[in-house]
Amino acid sequence: MNKTIETAFNDHLNAELFSSYLYLSMANYFAAENLEGMAQWMRIQVEEERIHALKFLDFINERGGRVTLGQIDQPKLKWQNALNVFEEAYAHECMISGKINDLLDVAREQSDHAAAAFLQWFISEQVEEEATALAIVGKLKLVGDHSMGLLMMDQQLAQRVPSAPDPAAQ
Ligand code: FEO
Description:
Order of helices and strands: HHHHH
Bound molecules: MU-OXO-diiron
Number of helices: 5
Helix content: over 70%
Largest sheet: none
CATH superfamily: Ferritin, core subunit, four-helix bundle
Shape: elongated
Radius of gyration: 17 Å
Number of domains: 1
CATH architecture: Up-down Bundle
Distance between the termini: 22 Å
């Protein structure tokens, strides 16, 4: 495997594992705030990020590279309110999108077409991830300080179900 790609993909594997850890911390914050629906929504996000990390891990292995598992930073533990959590989740997704774009630039510079093809799935996925978080931010802004609206949002987010397995990953 191209060493530049191997290093960049290992770094990104760590970023996806951190995403999972960050969302687990957000889930715990919601559990402590008695917002079980939002906690449930975040727990599903924890699993999605773990799957993203495993996709990178599998790709590195399949290409004959070496996976290097590094230290995962401690995530933030407290937020001001639900809106603050989802604003930070949205900002985090935008940051991850930037990293994916940078990875694609590196793959193209290195003429690694397999890596570039692999990253296309993530480019589309990030559009969805950003849109989902942004829609929740928008609704929470409408809710404002109204407890009833917050409880309704909590019930709505409790409806989230895990994504169907990706057939391409089977
Ligand atoms: Fe793995 Fe939410 O990006």
